[in-house]
Structure prediction request, 488 residues.
Amino acid sequence: MNDLIRLIYSLNDDDVAAFLAFAKARNQRTDVKNIKLFQLLQKGARRDLDIKIYGKPNKNALHALLNRLKESLIEFIAIQGFSNESEEEMQIFKLLLAARIFLEQGQFSLGFKTLHKARSKAQSLDLYAVLQEIYQTHIPYIHLDPKNDLEDIVNAYQNNEQLYLKESKMVMAYATVQKALKAHPPNIFEEVKKQMDRFDISINQNLSFKSLYQLMNVATEAATLKSDYAGVSIFMNHVYNIVENKKHLANKHLYYHLEIIYLMAGTCFRNRDFTRSQELLGKLYVEMQKQKGKFKSQFQERYQLLKALNLNYTGEAQKALKELDDIKKPSLSTQLAHIMVLFQQEKWNLARKTMKELYHSDSFYEKKEGFLWVVQKNILEILIYIELQQPDLVESRMKSFIKRFKIRLEQINEQRVVSFMKLLQFYFDKPYEITNDEFLTKVEQSFEWKTASQEDIFVMSFYAFLKARMENTSIYEATLKLVNNAHN
Prediction:
């Protein structure tokens, strides 16, 4: 049942509505037990499901119903994924299938014409795996094709095979890089290069847009886990420069180009290079309009969120809040960012109200957004309760935080979070002592600080709360001061 629950939790609100419509359409009878079971599991029900559905104990029937619901969800997700595939790729697959049918039926002229069209489209998109299928379909019939020479097709097939092999190596390299980075190597760039060398892959212009995106994405994931975007900035710039040298091909690979620009803009933001981040966001916006805005809906929220964050950390908090308010059906990342900005503006009650909208368990959110997102959510919640003067909630949340997260934070070398929570506890217990020199000394001795230029912007944002209380200034003022001093 755990697999089924994970499937259900992976659906967003639109997916849930679509699945319910899908299930109702598939139900051949008025029986809606599968829908009732789905809704019960979605609401967190786990006990006595058979009684709730059948009105009496019936474990065997429930087991069968769980399996049917799981199969139905898998089918729905597969159909959704199929319909969301690249329009161009799906068109090529359809052409290839049609060509095979024509050739098998002896309609050679139409078959070859269709196959040539599929090949041309696949070559324009560097779809090496699809081209393999096209060549394998073509070669057995090549003696019947007056417009193509066997040697030419064989050479093209062998050349494509080398490109396909390189892409396959990149898939394996990507997997090993991800595994290696989980060990938190001191130098991410060197670790990536080491794993790429293992598969004889050079990080150069011969890599596809997809491969370059994968490299930037895995580096970003590692930087997020280590709160060390400064540590990947050289690598990210190196890969982005390769992309810039290939930009004449960008329109053919628009989706991955958009992803690459977004990742680079995010890296610049996290390293407090707001000017460049905003320039890249401007570029992202222009690229989003291309091909009749084909990918605009997939990037719109991320674009608005990053734009809002840049505004917030350059002194335009009210514009940032408006940008966040304008996002329809905000994701969890957007909701948490909204809470953070509200907290920095000291709108405690509104921040708490927004936080209450995140009513699922931490385990649910960790599966969706990751461990560090859950940690940030819990810290923000504690800070809000401190400002709203709710001591019982503060005390219970702090004890729970240390109990649940301390060991895991230490395992990923984030002891500073634990140190921060201890300082927060001290402030909560003795708020009148926070302006003393002794507390400042305690803060300096508790943290293993990175250099100002390397410290992560979100780490600074949490520390800004303590700094604001030590210096008797607003949280937002302390935040901007820390960020600007680090950037300068």
Residues 150-181 form the longest helix (32 residues).
